[in-house]
Amino acid sequence: MPVGPQHPALKEPANFTFVVDGEHIVEVRARIGYNHRGMEKAAESRTYIQNLYLMERICGICSVAHTTCYAQNVEYLYQREIPPRAEYIRVIINELNRIHSHLLWLGVAGHEIGFDTLFMYVWRDREHVMDIIEAMTGNRVNYAINTVGGVRRDLNDQAIAKARKVLDILEERTKYYKRIAAAEPSLISRTRGIGILKPNDAVRLCAVGPTLRASAIKSDVRKDDPYSAYEEVPFNAVSYDMCDVFSRVLVRVDETLEAINIIRFCLDHLPGGPVRLKLPRNPPAGEAVSKVEAPRGEDIHYVKSDGTERPARYKVRAPTMGNIPAVCDMLTSKADHTVNIGDIPIVLASIDPCFSCTDRAIKFVDPWKEREWIWSHEQLEGYTRRKSRP
Amino acid sequence: MTEAFVEAIIQIAQILIFPGFLFVIGLAFAYEWFDRKFYAKLQNRVGPLYTGPRGFLQPFADFVKLMAKEDIVPLAVDKLLFNLSPLVAFALMLTAVLLLPISSPTGILSFPGDLIVAVALMTFFCIIVFLSGMCSTNRFSAVGAERAIFQLLGYEIPMMLAIVGVALGANSLKIADVVWRQGENLWYIFGPQAIGFAVYSVAVQAELERIPFDIPEAEQEIVAGWLTEFSGRKLALFRLSRDVELVFVAGLGAALYLGGPLGPIIPGLEPLLYTIYFIVKTVFVLVVLSTVRALFARLRIDQMVSFSWKYLIPLSVLQLLLVRLVV
Prior knowledge:
The structure holds two protein chains of two kinds. By secondary structure, chain A is of the alpha+beta class. Chain A has helices at 39-44, 48-56, 63-78, 84-112, 116-137, 157-183, 185-191, 199-204, 209-213, 221-224, 245-268, 319-330, 344-350, 355-358, 377-388; strands at residues 2-3, 15-21, 24-31, 146-147, 150-151, 286-294, 297-305, 311-317, 364-366, 371-373. Chain A has one domain (34-352): Orthogonal Bundle (Cytochrome-c3 Hydrogenase, chain B). Chain B has one domain (23-46, 56-326). The chains are: A alpha+beta, B mainly alpha. Chains A and B meet through α4, α5 and α7 of A and α6, α9 and α12 of B.
């Protein structure tokens, strides 16, 4: 039974082919790559400043995580620290982004199990956080707040006052949803014991982010390898040990509550000073890797500079990529538990997939001739040249 | 001669116009609108808005639009079944509403045992669902059809037991008798039959394939389930039969538990008042159904069946015992 590339449960194209026995899933084959956009190649042909806007568009939901990662990466190339106020603002915007992303996910999860009322309510409340983001950055989706060397806009008092007010509402609502999640029987019966990912499997399959933390492993880039101002902010890495979808719901709801506290702390302790460091146009030659805890998990960017105004190579590993093997494992029936067709949507959704961020042309598969091959960079270039020859 | 002729004309008008097909179809659109609007209110949305006052004409507009759309018959389907099933489904539901007491305490068709026919028509509808899913030769349709039958195993027995309770109470298998009996005494919803009403409202939710039991057409899992391959006029007919079924189910609920169209009467205005009472009571049933729909997440098929065998059936048996003790 095919799910995708076009399927109501998937908001983006991907294909999962399921071998089913009645209602039970025996095997799953994932096929990604429908939404390859050539971002990395595009990054090589743009300047470092232009790339900010490209990176913002890797993902529509965790846009700021990618720009933070990118900006940090380039700052590592310059080997310069950005002003502390800019670091705090980055943390605030990143956490607001996390709240918005997790609430969005909670709504989608509700929708996937047919609980549309939850979906509508959560998305209504998510508008509050969108409003704060708009007040702070001027935009709702692609905030364009980060820049190489700091942030582009300072926070004004009006936005801060508004944020404080709205955070109270959000906290109350999020706590309410947590109570609902813990008490609503039909929701529990659809998520408890579903999509099991054992801790050792989670590590073996390189799961990241909330998916990993829901399998009892407390791994969070913000804690393990702090960036920006995360070192100075007190917060807990949330983790639950039920290893199922229910535990992923709880992790995300709790992370939303943590994020609210982080933002409050940052607003209270916002240092003064400038928000931006003026840097020379071309970074020195070198390489850098930067990691950011995006709402979906660890986001890794790699940059190689040859001293010109454009990166020589840019590589992005979006978090969903790390979770694809894990979700295939969750969807396969094991000796001790079976997976039903009815569980496909919620289990797929439980990793909060974002396929357009993930897709890379790494392997060519011809499913009809059952042929697979990999091209090197030169071969690929040669192919492009042949094709583009008039 | 002329008298018999006039009589026949009146009967045909009753069947075709009021309170028969035309009225019920109009009511079906109105109830779909009400259901959507009320469901939207519960979810903090506005619901249909643009077509007609407060979006009242939206279901009708949807129907007209679907009628005008391209009607695709896939190559691999069983043509006869595929073309016939929407018609049969629609015909089944129109027949069923003739049994409902709307403008008088007896339906247009009324005979001893019509209660059994009403239940049978609902089950036939489910069989049509299964057949149309299977004849589509689509994987999603097949899974949906399989689920529809599996679901039937879950909800049919508790629903029947609940209705048996009513029949026991009235000592008759005729809907009109059940209604009269409630006119003489209390409505059945006040008393042990209230359990039956609860069971009935949950079970018909499955019959109507609405959340939490919209498993055979679970959008996120199997696209549109058994409906996946239907388009254009066929889909329109299926949707209309669903709406008529909604009227039927709400009307049956009202007839069995809320005293049907009975209420205080001004002589001379009976048909009008009966119709008004019917609408008020069915809307009440509809409110119950829509609220249930907004409150829960969709269950999985195995959870649905075990839920109904663990809770619904014991409840309906309990209701039977209580009714037996009271009567």
